[in-house]
Amino acid sequence: MENRILHVDAGAGYDIVIEPGVLDDAGARIKAALPRAKRLFLVTDSHVSPLYGPRLVASLEKLSFEVHTHVIPAGETSKSAENLVALWEWMTAHGVTRTDAVVALGGGVVGDLAGFAASTVLRGVDTVQIPTTLLSQVDSSVGGKTAIDLPTGKNLAGTFCQPRLVLMDPDTLATLPESEFMSGMAEVVKYGCIWDADFFDFLAARPTRAALTADIGHILYTCCDIKRQVVNADERDTGLRMILNFGHTLGHAYELAGNYETWTHGQAVAAGMVTAAELGETLGLTEAGCADKIRAILTPLGLPTHIPCSLAHMEKAVGIDKKSAGDSVTVILLEKIGTVMPRKMPKEELLELLAGICGRDA
Ligand code: NAD
Ligand code: GLY
């Protein structure tokens, strides 16, 4: 696989480097992007640390960086206020200065938490994202959203703060458990649905992990290219960026229905995309057959196309959706595969329609 580099204009502007083995070249890449940085604060998790920590640290120390490492327990519960404070205290205890940087090595949990800590300590130091899950490579490491979870909900506190560099080593995906790989695939399929019908067909022709892995460079590049165009146009999520939430309003309802334990985010988004397509078809706005096409691409990947969900959970998810304003909510519908159609509608109307589609589960 050849090396691929994309540039994001948002923030100070930064490169996304997609390159097998780039972990071993991280020191030189970071030195070039952040020539004034002396100390690097490496944040990773308990699964990723033993797998990739030593190689990364060796690459950083080769370039004479002073490296401090903090390992958080793997899992969503680590995206907490307690861990955020712990990171602030750890960095300041080790003399962080404004020209130093935080390096996030891991999935979206590490990236979101470390990014938030970096964007707020000393009112902001630079971040380098080194994503190691499919989801974090195609989505969370690019675009500058950082967050922690609160007892009142997921991702309820955070910042917009673009990283200064994103280093993506596709080889790290080899150790990813099957369920995590397929969870990331739901977001990959989403890009085909909302932006690129040819990419959707390309994915449909690769129904196994082995076939997808053989073309992983193209897949990562295509997804990051779409995301960077969306972020360049709407960094602060007030317009176009909302299309990245295709399948997510319903997905949140499914996550809630399973108490965030039964279904991974990707599984919930997979079923949410099918429901959103069904909704569009019911309204006569989405080309007939789209829901079936999405089902056909998700099923061989082992992703669910239907998740039982009560209307009460639907109501709660619609109520807390970040795309809701007053009594209305913007639902991301498809016109056809590859083209989206955001549609603002009264929450009551949306819930009535969903009652027709999902009421059988109530
Ligand atoms: P994650 O970070 O929890 O990683 C999933 C699991 O895989 C963890 O157990 C992790 O330790 C393990 N892991 C990571 N890399 C591995 C590797 N290479 N080999 C083996 N195991 C590995 O989950 P995720 O799916 O990467 O990210 C989910 C998080 O991302 C959520 O908190 C979500 O809110 C957030 N998110 C943020 C954005 C954004 O724009 N900031 C977008 C989407 C999702
Ligand atoms: N993951 C959605 C966004 O970055 O806006």
Number of strands: 12
CATH class bucket of the largest domain: Mainly Alpha
Poorly predicted segments: none
Number of domains: 2
Major pleated sheet = 7 strands, mixed
Strand content: 15-25%
Task: Name the average pLDDT.
Answer: 95
Side-by-side strand order of the widest sheet? 1-2-9-6-5-3-4
End-to-end Cα distance: 48 Å
Computed over alpha carbons, the radius of gyration is 20 Å
Helix content: 40-55%
Q: What is the CATH topology assignment of the largest domain? A: Dehydroquinate synthase-like, alpha domain
CATH architectural type of the largest domain: Up-down Bundle
* N-to-C order of helices and strands: EEHEHEHEHEHEEEHHHHHHHHEEEH
Number of helices: 14
Structural class: alpha/beta
Apparent shape: globular
CATH superfamily of the largest domain, by name, is Dehydroquinate synthase-like - alpha domain
